What does this fold into?
Amino acid sequence: MPEIWFRYGGTEVSLELPDDLSYKMLEPRELKPDERLWRELGTFADNLGRGAGSRGFTILYDHSGDKMSLVILRHLIESLEQYSDRIRVLVSGWRLDPSEGWEDARRGLKEYDVRAEIINVRGREMVEHSGMRIVEDLLDNSVKIILTASEPHGLFGKASLREALAFGGFAEIGFSEDLQADILTVWSRLIEELRPWAITMLNDRIYMGDAEDVAKRVYNAGCEEAVSDFEIVLAGCGGRPRDTSFQLIAHVIGLLRDTVVDDGLIGLIAECSRGLGSKSFMEAVLGGGGTPLDRALARMIRETSTSKKIALATTLPRSVMKKLFDIRCFDTPEEMLTYALRRYT
It folds into this structure.
């Protein structure tokens, strides 16, 4: 009997598939560290270092829980140290729970021995500039480098450099219901002001260079795999710190809604140990309050549930999820699969 393992909170859970079940397993392609990668990163850092003079470096690091980003950050700093001892890392983590995200980043930076001045961007002074409020640290003359992992996202298509600047706490604007336009506004204003460089990873590729050029390449890059319409799609959500609340993993519903037939089942495996999510998200779910981002997420869940069935293997309370989202919850992936097979076979 084939067995598949999923990350689930701080552990893993397994799912045994019946021998006679027809299925297809998809896994994300991952960047593999090798000597070629470190040479490319070293060359990139050398080019920046030789032109920096005494300006120093400020790295805008948006933490997503991805370990490869930490490895690349460490190697980048090691390469820059020969040019300046003034290296700061401003840490954000908009894709994670605010408190747990910072703690996960802090532990990771220590584990991977990242030697620099580490600063939580959420605690920094904001000043008015270019028609919005931005972190004061960004207005010095240091060389700016944005570093984050890029990945598919159920609301935006991709979560990458632009979203890191818009939602990471580096800048504040009054977001409207047109989030895509607001993201581009923040991006264009900060790019014009900072003239930053960027490093990001998407699937098994790394992109380095001028931030605007890197963004164009990443957002134009394909990261989907063509699949037929399925009756059932089951997906893991990455484990801790990615699956600590329903709010964090709900965008995956948007990623998968076009992979299943009408009335098909989207099944997610996510512990959600911190519950449903933030107060703002719950305001959006219950009464249309919250932030525009929260409202967009709640709206996407409701719209998807009108044409697809949604299920969760989770610790969330069944009655609450059924009432709020029309989502059926199960204690284990096996229970969820049993329900799905009974419904669709």
Summary: The chain has a mean pLDDT of 95.
